[in-house]
Design goal:
Layout: E1 3-6, E2 54-59, E3 68-74, E4 77-81, E5 86-94, E6 99-106, E7 112-119, E8 124-129, H1 141-147, E9 152-154, H2 188-198, E10 201-206, H3 212-225, E11 232-236, H4 248-261, E12 262-264, E13 270-272, H5 287-310, E14 319-324, H6 331-342, E15 352-355, E16 358-359, H7 380-396, H8 403-412, E17 416-419, E18 423-424, H9 433-439, H10 444-460, E19 469-472, H11 495-505, E20 531-536, E21 544-550, E22 554-556, H12 557-564, E23 577-585, E24 591-599, E25 603-607, E26 610-615, E27 623-631, E28 637-645, E29 652-658, E30 665-666, E31 672-674
Parallel strand pairs: 1-9, 1-19, 9-10, 10-11, 11-14, 14-15, 15-17, 16-18
Antiparallel strand pairs: 2-7, 3-6, 3-8, 4-7, 5-6, 12-13, 20-21, 20-23, 22-29, 23-28, 23-31, 24-27, 24-29, 25-26, 25-28, 29-30
Helix pairs in contact: 2-3, 3-5, 4-5, 5-6, 7-10, 10-11
Length: 675
Amino acid sequence: MPLGVNLDSLSDWSPQQMFVDLVKAARVPFGTAQDPFDDRGVPLGDDGWPLGDFGVVLSINRIDADQTYSLSFEGFATSISTYATSIIRNLSYDPIANLTTADLEVYPDTYIALGFSGVGPRVRNLKVLRPGYAPTQTFTTPFLTRLEPFQVIRFMDYLMTNANPVTTWSERTLPTSPSQARREGGAWEYAIQLANETRKDIWINIPALADDDYVLQLAQLMRANLDPGRAIYFEYSNEVWNMWPGFDQGWQNLWLARTEALICSEGGTCQCNVTSNLCAFDLETRDFVLAWRRIVRRDIQIADIFKSVYGPEAMLTTIRPVLATQMYSMTPRQQLYFVQNVYGAPSRFFVGMALHPFFGPWGSPNGPTDDIITDPNATVDQLLESMSWDIREMLLNSEEYSLAGFNSLARAFSLRMFAFEGGLDTGYYDINVERKIACSFDPRMTTLLTHYLATWSACMGDGDSGGLFNYYKLASVYGVYGQWGLTDNINLPSVKTAAIDAMMQRNPASFECSTIPYDPAAPPPGTGTGLSASYYRDPNFGQLDRTQLDSTVDFWWWDMIWAVNPAILPAQLVGAYSVVWTGAVEPKYSQTYAFYTLAEHPIRLMVNGVTLVSDQSEHPTPVEQSGTIDLQANQRYPIRIESRSPVGPGGTVSLSWSSASQTRAKVSRSQLYPF
């Protein structure tokens, strides 16, 4: 099975321990000599090193402690403080070479920080080498050992791709920078060196704001320094469709698409700027759709620049553009539709389509649920069982927006299926964190993760390169923000690394996509296309903005705001709105059906003239409501959903159903018919 892995971002707290020299992952900015944690910074020279006294935090990860490090730097300091966490021995200064050397003995279970006072000549080229390494060694042995099972290294976090501010090549991090743990990301030179030393292919992320010259300089750097046998997977930034805090690239891309492709009146009505190929062929005016299209257009532009350096014969072989897109949405369909109509067959430009298939304690026998992940009393057994159900739902659900549906979509366009990220996701809930962490140490996680990867391989793979899965990530801290890493201690194996080892020892031919079987007796899906949707600019269904066809009722707030008025600027996403979906729903079974709504704002659901849900209250978080009704198979029943937001944007609106034979799931497009 082709496996890759994501690296952690460089930091003084990461357990990844990538570099031999601690300074390469030291905290930025430098602190003061009195307080190295002082993040106000100190004056720096053009080379990035302090002009006078300073402090530096090297590591707060305790697995770095209880060792003796080799310290050296150009310059002199009358005093080197260790803050009672370590001791300096064998301190020596050579005035001719202007070189200071010492041994740094670090106490157990503590952090590592230094303060330099009485500096002169100024301190430069500080190095603090881990025990047992020569100055010529760049990467640690445990780090390299953990990388051995993988074929591909994805550098997204190493490059600090999310919200990366770099626009020009001169703004990038250099290998000579005092620390690589910069907002601009680690140096490309070290990424290339790592790929060459490990003989791994690389998966890179181009900064969202990087100009064409940046891309050209990067392509030339790789052509000159990356071993010819190494393939380069690339994507434009990371999750550019994502608008959560910290993903500035999503807003940047949206603004660039809107500015280029829309001409909007003061009243908010927009039309296509036909000079833009983002909309000229179909006059599309929904800005979020234009933003999705701009992502793949930028992918193609970047590929063209690499092709100009590597030559046409390298495309789709050495240079491997990837359409990294969003799960559970219409994003990839819109992107493929755009490429097909404007450029031609997507398989001429992309080797594959990549998604992010994480699993976690979100599953149950009745379908997706938040009940376990938000339960403060959930046991480890319950959490692991919920993860197992989530894997079942994710990998073998045949709904349109499931992985199986996206895999079929990729195959229809002759594209392979990849995972740019995937693995365990326990959410960002500060609830029951200790037991969630315990799951990552439970031996049953080995079986669960092995099954997850094997099923992915069988269902999504097609040989040596199809189905490439990049685990997220090699190593990370386990805490309230997740237990993403395969290990939290790079020096030790874990129940998760055992799953990777097991995958390497198994014959992919033994993997079965039917391990979690489909129901062969299930009725075929309907032929529906969705519901008619009417969007209003007020909370009482009065000021109609637009009507459109929505394939499902499964929205979060920015989808709804953009649909209401694509001219609204990011800083102005305020105001009330309302939406009505109408049409017919067609059940597959003659049974009693339960319909479920999930919303923060007032919502009303009617099926066949019967009101099943009527909640006119505001809630701080999404609230589930439900009602039941007897329905006959293959008959179409009128359905109407009303959603109002009197207090402005925010919130979720989704519609699910279940019956004795219908697994609880979002009501799919195939069973919905517009009026």
